[in-house]
Amino acid sequence: MNVVERYLYPRVESQRIISLILWPISVMMIIQRSLILGVNGHRTDDFTPVYNAAFNFLNRLPVYNENYSTVDPHYLYPPSGTMLMAPLAVLNPEYSRWLFIAASVVVLILCAYLLTRMFGYSYDSWVFPALLLFFFSTETVAHTLIFTNFNGFVLLGMLAFMMLMMRRHDLWAGVAIGLTLAVKPVLAPLLLLVLLNRQWKILVTAIGVPLVLNVLAWPLSKDPMDFVHRTVPYLGESRDYYNSSITGNAAYFGVDSWLAWLLRIAFVVMAVFSLWFLYRYYRRSDELLWLATSSGVLLGTTFLVGSLGQGYYSMLLFPLLMTVFQTGSTMRNWPAWLGVYGCMTFDVFDSKKWEPFGRYLEYNKVPLGWSLLMISVFCVLLFRYLDLREADASGGSVDGGSSDGGSVHDGPVPAA
């Protein structure tokens, strides 16, 4: 290349080009979602009940005295969560909400960075801005900022828990998940993975942190027993609004209870098989793939079969989605990503021309998305199981490795 060509046709690596495209778009999307949509807010306001509870806690007023018969957002955190949220009430409500939005944005950016590093990519690769673009284009992140809730911090605790668990910093891993459990117990199913991996020390702090925080908060609360007598029973109910679980969806559309139970049992059975297969064939050969996929199966199934599943919980499935970059991932098929579109899209399907159909799609896109994603993971693993059985029957040697001890990198690596 001569001098003229070097200046007229400068060479730039393709990854550098991708980063140059993604960074400005990602930054502007973050600004729009936080400074515009977040500050604008919405009629659904998750922050005000939290602020009021924090204010009442600091001023020794009743916290758990809400009317749960209304469809307004309710305060549902235990006394430990109230104590952790109490500093919010030091500022006036508007400034406190803005500060919470800003903190959530920082936390979500940190989550994208941790997810990038967890899967072996550097901060200056195209993966980091791509993740930021994906994060802030989803309904789950957008509504976390617009409604102003705690979900971003739960995702941070989850990623910290997974990274520390894989590095065998067990007590600190327990602290990470324990702090989230002290506020909301959405990550509690992940403790099953701790038991399966025999990292018993994690349970000491995972259970101990929320327990100690509740012991400290209990005498400081005006009405802690009302949380037990009023809030806990409400948490066990399947409400028919803002609820994308199977029972919530069935209650809203008038589906018979027997069909709802049949669907719940079917998804539990699929989850049990998926978790068994992942444990049997992936735990020792690829711990990251096992942990990220199993966590997605556990949480996605919980969202569907539990009493309450809200669309913005979908951000806790980000580690499962990130496995698409790994050999052996269950996310390398189009039905799985159609499911991702359903449970994470920010698109609105309300239609003036086809109002009933548009309303049905709008109210069902999240449960249908979760369902298709869980079914896709199950089918991928089921087909691999059948292939392994066929190979074994034809005389091949099939062994997933012993489940006892050993390095997590020992044993065969299953085919993609």
TrEMBL record:
<keyword id="KW-0472">Membrane</keyword>
<feature type="transmembrane region" description="Helical">
    <location>
        <begin position="368"/>
        <end position="386"/>
    </location>
</feature>
<comment type="similarity">
    <text>Belongs to the glycosyltransferase 87 family.</text>
</comment>
<feature type="compositionally biased region" description="Low complexity">
    <location>
        <begin position="405"/>
        <end position="416"/>
    </location>
</feature>
<feature type="transmembrane region" description="Helical">
    <location>
        <begin position="98"/>
        <end position="115"/>
    </location>
</feature>
<feature type="region of interest" description="Disordered">
    <location>
        <begin position="395"/>
        <end position="416"/>
    </location>
</feature>
<feature type="transmembrane region" description="Helical">
    <location>
        <begin position="20"/>
        <end position="39"/>
    </location>
</feature>
<dbReference type="Pfam" id="PF09594">
    <property type="entry name" value="GT87"/>
</dbReference>
<feature type="transmembrane region" description="Helical">
    <location>
        <begin position="288"/>
        <end position="313"/>
    </location>
</feature>
<protein>
    <submittedName>
        <fullName>Arabinosyltransferase AftC</fullName>
    </submittedName>
</protein>
<keyword id="KW-1133">Transmembrane helix</keyword>
<keyword id="KW-0808">Transferase</keyword>
<keyword id="KW-0812">Transmembrane</keyword>
<feature type="transmembrane region" description="Helical">
    <location>
        <begin position="145"/>
        <end position="165"/>
    </location>
</feature>
<feature type="transmembrane region" description="Helical">
    <location>
        <begin position="171"/>
        <end position="195"/>
    </location>
</feature>
<feature type="transmembrane region" description="Helical">
    <location>
        <begin position="258"/>
        <end position="279"/>
    </location>
</feature>
<dbReference type="GO" id="GO:0016758">
    <property type="term" value="F:hexosyltransferase activity"/>
</dbReference>
<dbReference type="InterPro" id="IPR018584">
    <property type="entry name" value="GT87"/>
</dbReference>
<dbReference type="GO" id="GO:0005886">
    <property type="term" value="C:plasma membrane"/>
</dbReference>
<feature type="transmembrane region" description="Helical">
    <location>
        <begin position="202"/>
        <end position="220"/>
    </location>
</feature>
<keyword id="KW-1003">Cell membrane</keyword>
